[in-house]
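ingest -> validate -> predict -> emit
validate: passed (alphabet ok, no gaps, 210 aa)
predict: started
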Amino acid sequence: MKRSLKDLRGKYGQPPHHPVNEHARKMRETFQDDESRVAYRMDHVWPTRYYEIGQGRSVAYTSNKWKDDDDFEDYKHVAESPNQTFVTDKFLRAARNRRSDLRPNGGEFPECYPEVEFPPTVAELAPFIFFEARPIAVYSGSNRVVLAEEAIQVGIPGCILYGCYAKPPGGSWSRKSSLIPFLAVIHKKDGVMAIITGKSLDVKKDGIVG
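emit:
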């Protein structure tokens, strides 16, 4: 499957001078299993509010890892530990044009607000295909959440999957061990569409793990 990363990526400026640049570059280098000199400046605004859609079960992408530049193969990472999937308003609007069942209680998913500091630089991984998640079917507005029995598959065309590090309170951008790896689905025009987190989520030589 051939996908033009250049077309999906859009224009990115020179990364700012920041300690996370090296972490992002190494993450991309690890994922591609090849030397990388590139870390991409985050030219979109990180969301200040998003929605918890449910428990992440998998994420699919297409990559030319270990292949020629224009030779892409599809992969699906199946979550090995509990993952959480968060989406933005733009993601929900686009996804609901394709399926109308993305409404717990017939209403809206729980709102969430960042408890971490998001990075100014990200690591490009691969063109995004879809994620699978057990969506929240019922919630009471408190901590009581009921997940759907079956996972759903949702994809938004034209997005790239990026690897990122977030800084929790008390963390340090210079100390990678204090940062939290996560995945971001980003569209070149619409910005951040989804964020996937997990206690063991990370990017290794064999791909996405955790």
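The longest strand covers residues 121-139.
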